[in-house]
Amino acid sequence: MAMPGSLRRQPGNRALTSICTHHHIAVFLLTFFSYSLLHASRKTFSNVKVSISSQWTPTFLNSTAVELQPYELWNSSHLFSTAEEATLFLGTLDTIFLFSYAVGLFVSGIVGDRLNLRWVLSFGMCSSALVVFLFGTVTEWLHFYNKWFYCCLWVLNGLLQSTGWPCVVAVMGNWFGKAGRGFVFGLWSACASVGNILGAFLASCVLKYGYEYAFLVTTSVQFAGGGVVFFGLITSPKEVGLPELDAEEKSVAEEDANRPLMSSEDVDDYDRNYSIQASDSSIQPKAIGFFQACCLPGVILYSLAYACLKLVNYSFFFWLPFYLSNNFGWKEAEADQLSIWYDVGGIIGGTIQGLISDMLQKRAPVLAVSLLLAVGALFGYSRSPDSKPINAVIMAVTGFFIGGPSNMISSAISADLGRQELVRGSSEALATVTGIVDGTGSIGAAVGQYLVSLIQDNLGWMWVFYFFILMISSTILFISPLVVREIRLLLQERHLRILTG
């Protein structure tokens, strides 16, 4: 009787440490901080929403702006008659960004599997930095305010920013095999949360000078980071003459690197000598097609689940500082700094839950447990008192149970899906699969941002949290077939262990 791979495999940590070189560390850090900088520029927009809303309504004149006469000609920044209209438009901008970002992800994943990942990533970083600089800084300096111009810039920004995630996940997938992937990718996927923290910190430091300087600082850092990526990132071990997997990784984890954790098949693959990369250098691998990627096991279910989960996660990302300022009356800079605790919880959650999923060699049950606890965390946070310490603690717990699963699906699970057995003849599938999962998630998030502003405006913040609970429940529903399948496999493996002594 062939025993399951999970019963035969050696501990993943030994295989993981044996392949770690200074190139792996450099790739980890460069991809980590490149995406952190992309997220920092996005976070800036959510951190200065209160200032932008005030600037676009008649109740405020930016103190850094020069008063020019006649007033009617130069003070055309009053795009809206009320703060509610301005808030609704800010939600519309979030929706526009996420829709264009979603479309861009589907395209960027395909492009990333066909062009040099380093070129695509550095181009996206530098060009999106210029667009955000034009949106937030140049328009304010020139006192040029136009709704259609803002919308066009945000569409372009979404398309350019979409080059980031498929490229960095694909590069990480090229360098790190499945041994310890949950922990490595769980730790690495904290890049988005670190970017949120960095963006909140930079914005709060310069916000007193005007919101335009928050955009100026973050985009300058992002543009410089794009240059570093262009000259320093090594996208594949082959570029420096390293083997794609060392002998130990091939002998103890070869089958796992090609079979996703959500697979229901119990197959002995020891005689199939292939790795997560194309091992025969004489054969040029072809990139997988879009519809082929959609048909891979688990891709559709995880994509739909991520659409609901990313809606909630990005709602916290876009609206948390605004909620704290609007609901509790706290200063905008204080709300920006306090919102960091949600990302801290997400960092810890993604790392710990990734490590647990490595130990179990199953992802879906870990996600389900975390999401069930997230429902309770959301209910508790919706009733948080007007106390910053208590709010920060509950916020961190909420981030742990929501941000952790979100990080796992978008990184480790996407890598599992893109490196499974059915695509072993093509080493150029990971960016496409990642684009599909994250793109579908972004569509859900895009719809959600408009719904959040609409629900808040008509029903209040409490109903927004009820909406979040509904979306988390839908996420659990979509992954439930995978949860049942993987729990069944765990029980079968336990039964085999008992039989084999």
Name the descriptors.
501 residues; mainly alpha; 0% strand; globular; disordered N terminus
Report the principal-axis shape.
globular
Helical run tally: 21
Could you tell me the radius of gyration in angstroms? 23 Å
Structural class: mainly alpha
What is the N-to-C succession of helices and strands?
A: HHHHHHHHHHHHHHHHHHHHH
Give the percentage of residues in beta strands. Answer: under 5%
Major sheet: none
**Residue-averaged pLDDT:** 76
Instruction: Report the helical percentage.
Output: over 70%
Distance from N terminus to C terminus (CA atoms, Å) equals 14 Å
Quick one: how many beta strands? 0
Low-confidence stretches: 1-18, 59-66, 245-284
Describe this entry's structure for a reader.
With 501 residues, the chain is mainly alpha-helical. Helix content is 74%, strand content 0%. It is built from 21 helices and no strands. The protein has helices at residues 5-8, 12-18, 22-47, 49-55, 71-74, 83-112, 117-141, 147-161, 164-175, 181-188, 191-206, 211-232, 247-258, 290-294, 299-328, 332-338, 340-360, 364-382, 388-418, 430-458, 461-500. The longest helix is centred in the C-terminal third of the chain and has 40 residues, at 461-500. It is globular and about 75 Å long. The model is unreliable at 1-18, 59-66 and 245-284 (pLDDT under 50).
